[in-house]
Design brief:
Strand content of chain A: 5-15%
Helix content of chain A: 25-40%
Shape of chain A: globular
Radius of gyration of chain A: 21 Å
Number of domains of chain A: 2
CATH architecture of the largest domain in chain A: 3-Layer(aba) Sandwich
Structural class of chain A: alpha/beta
Largest interface: A-B, 84 and 84 residues
Largest sheet of chain A: 5 strands, mixed
Oligomer: homodimer
């Protein structure tokens, strides 16, 4: 029997997070995690941490972490907003900035959370098809809209658009907020960060989950003019004042501090990616020129859905998306260590035999 | 000049978190923190933690923590929802359960976040006046409404209503969701938890911030029938799949594991509270019979606002609320250690001389 209270419940199509297998010898290339551990300073910061202080509320401004990020990018602290992963940051952005009756715009093939947030917050939206090469056509974003968001590089395609194209989209949309989601920018892209000094309606969102090897710690951040950051903080403080715990703040600041390690691991991942591209090309796989820490591949003679299942049986986990239809014969493969990619490539060389 | 994008921004009256002073010798009795450190096992769990694993996403279900809480209360895991502090849990509850056109009901003097969330999520609400003794009158909650929430014990009054009164409110409101916010229940109250087995429309929300000495770690939880927990998880997974980091999960589970320490520290706080009540009564202060870890006091001959400022100058921090008007001559004083309360009492004995 349906109860009366049922009708007041927000019913959403439950978002199902990607599988997080946890086997000893698995090759986990399914969630774009960094194959290298966090910077050594993170371990030291943990060991030095005094748990007695946990009885107290944390600093609601997460000052130490905000300052570390601001200093790193040469910004003022008032230009930086932090949240519990870039998902938290983006959810707050959707709530704060997308409140018109006009649909917000994002690509049809993109981060799968955008339409989930739009549904959850009852924001109208329109998905703009990528072209046949899975590229964003900037001209498509010159229509009346309530805001724009896209990842650069895009996910799950890995395709990067140049800074000039990002600027063109921002410039043509002065009346709405434009969010550039740069989760993967550190793997060879050029950040849109300089645009925040030139345009007051653009936010650049980044994360510690990929290039900083801290997916577990849940740290994302937005950078923009102080006015936008203030609006974001107003909404955030009215949602949950204390989101960042002192361990997150301390370990996050320690991660930012180690530029050498960051450069070193990022370069290694880029090198492994390019080596993997060459090997896959030889095997007849087809893919765009990914500038991220993953490849989005297909093969003219193989079923990617079948390959996904077959690899899984060998404890090699990659990602397959059943929707939208036109990416159904693609796999998203995260870049692991050279050794991990070698095991994958070896399996592919003998596939399907 | 106002930009066009300004009109699409969610404008909220910024919530200002209470001050978090950080002086070496201060007596901090302003945010209801526990004066005792987290259970010893929490320190051990931190020391044993391997930061290398932080490169991976955490378990989105926070299984280890959910199981620890479920086991502790003799519930199924499907009856427990966890979030980033009870503020996160309550914000998700507001979003999930309060979606009718009818106003939700809560007391006029209560946790100051309820109206902030209602404003943020554009939920109509009605504040029901407490009686002249700051007590909830259950009959006031028998009107058409879109949902009900109240803390028990109430904040900042500390007043507890008996389980029968809570049940009366739940029973009279079968068509809406009733949330009992039990942040302070472990300091002498009787939890409404048994009601979740009897009524499918009630949620009980608790936190690690007070009785578990973990305000810094940000852990709150809701307990209810699996159907309500599922609705809550559906909304939460569509907001941010990964909210609980592995340190939070591990340290939280370690805190729940130590029942002896929990009983010991809770009893000490209750004893200190009762001793403080007696001493304050002698000094002419007037207050209700708080069953929480704070007292809500006034004095017929003194200005509490002035006292608040004067204590602050001595580095003794208590909490004063400027609104609503009828609590303006009250102070909320958290229960610290016996030594801390002695310093406060000594200052009061000589006040204002």
């Amino acid at each position: 029997m349906t109860k009366n209270w049922e009708k007041n419940i927000r019913k959403v199509v439950p978002y199902v997070p990607g599988e997080q297998p946890n086997k000893a010898n698995m090759i986990k290339l399914n969630t774009n995690e960094n194959p290298y551990p966090p910077a050594p300073g993170v371990f030291g910061a943990l060991r030095a941490f005094d748990t007695d202080g946990l009885r107290r509320y944390p600093d609601p401004t997460a000052h130490v972490l905000v300052k570390a990020i601001a200093d790193h990018y040469g910004l003022e602290e008032a230009q930086v907003f932090v949240g519990v992963g870039s998902d938290d940051v983006l959810a707050m952005c959707f709530m704060t900035f997308f409140n018109s009756g006009q649909p917000i715009l994002f690509p049809d093939i993109t981060y799968s959370f955008y339409d989930v947030w739009a549904e959850e917050f009852r924001i109208p939206y329109q998905q703009i098809p990528l072209d046949e090469d899975f590229q964003i056509r900037p001209g498509d974003y010159v229509v009346e809209n309530g805001g724009i968001i896209f990842p650069n590089p895009n996910a799950p395609t890995g395709n990067l658009i140049p800074l000039e194209t990002v600027e063109e989209i921002v410039k043509k949309n002065p009346d709405v907020i434009v969010i550039v989601d740069e989760a993967y920018i550190d793997f060879g892209g050029v950040s849109a960060l300089p645009l925040i000094e030139k345009y007051d309606n653009v936010l650049v969102v980044q994360t510690f989950s990929k290039s900083r090897s801290m997916a577990g710690m849940r740290i994302g951040y937005a950078m923009a003019q102080p006015q936008l950051i203030k609006y974001l903080n107003d909404v955030k403080y009215s949602f949950n004042s204390y989101t960042m715990n002192p361990l997150t703040i301390t370990l996050g600041a320690a991660a930012v501090a180690d530029e050498v390690y960051f450069q070193e691991t990022t370069k290694k991942i880029i090198a492994t990616r390019e080596r993997t591209k060459a090997a896959l090309r030889e095997l007849g796989y087809v893919f765009g020129d990914s500038m991220s820490n993953f490849l989005f591949v297909t093969h003219p003679a193989l079923s990617m859905e079948q390959l996904f299942e077959d690899l899984k049986r060998k404890d090699i986990y990659v990602r397959h998306f059943k929707r939208p239809e036109r990416i159904r014969n693609y796999l998203r493969i995260s870049i692991g260590t050279d050794a991990e990619m070698d095991i994958l490539l070896e399996a592919l060389r003998h596939y399907p035999d």
